Amino acid sequence: MSTLTKSVPKPSQAFTTRQEGILDAAETCFVRNGFHRSTMQDIAREASMSSPNIYRYFVSKEAVLLAMAERERRRAADRIAQFEEAGDKRAALFSTIAYYHLEIPREGAVLRVELWSEATRNSEIEAILREREEQSSAWFIATLAALATSPNCDPVALYGAISALLKGIIVNKAVFPAFDIDPALAQLHALLDAGLAGNLPVQPCRNRTAP
């Protein structure tokens, strides 16, 4: 006796558009009030819809955040692909860095930090962010390797150095509205120039005995 399987119907365009609007409203709420202080009622109000109706689109606030993280991961992948279409890897590298770290508005930085914070408590959010980090690091390392001007360039170590700096920029933008990015930007360019030339600063040995 054969078993018939039913395919899951694809959401209508109207349904998808409404979900996108709810995610935009949730971003506004999470930036303004934080994830834990925001409620589904707050999100519904921001999206100009009734509280019961919002549950047709998302079963919980956690589901909203999960969809938001997935949307951000998808957008990042699409944006990097667009930058690469020009065929200039150096331009793609700096365009990606500028778009996601240097030019990000404070609201975007606050939301990024909210996602990072929730990932320490929510395994599904952590999995999405981990996958995004793995994809991002693979792209950065391959791009840095292609741009290396010396065989001594260590693209893995270079990515580790600039990644820490870029994440620090996001945190500072989120926490300090008057954060001056110029010193960090100068440090970023110095790291890239030195690392691509194979002159990345070496961490001193911690076990070295003082004379």
TrEMBL record:
Q: Which InterPro entries match?
A: Homeodomain-like_sf, HTH-type_TetR-like_transc_reg, HTH_TetR, Tet_transcr_reg_TetR-rel_C_sf, TetR_C_31
Which UniProt keywords are given for this protein, alphabetically ordered?
DNA-binding
Lineage: superkingdom: Bacteria
Name-wise, this protein is Putative HTH-type transcriptional regulator YfiR
Protein's organism: Methylobacterium bullatum
Residue intervals annotated as DNA-binding region are 39-58
Specify the HTH tetR-type domain's residue ranges. 16-76
MF terms from GO for this chain are:
DNA-binding transcription factor activity; transcription cis-regulatory region binding
Highest lineage ranks of the organism? Bacteria, Pseudomonadati, Pseudomonadota, Alphaproteobacteria, Hyphomicrobiales
Task: Give the matching PROSITE patterns.
Answer: HTH_TETR_2 (PS50977)
Record's keyword annotation contains Lipoprotein: no
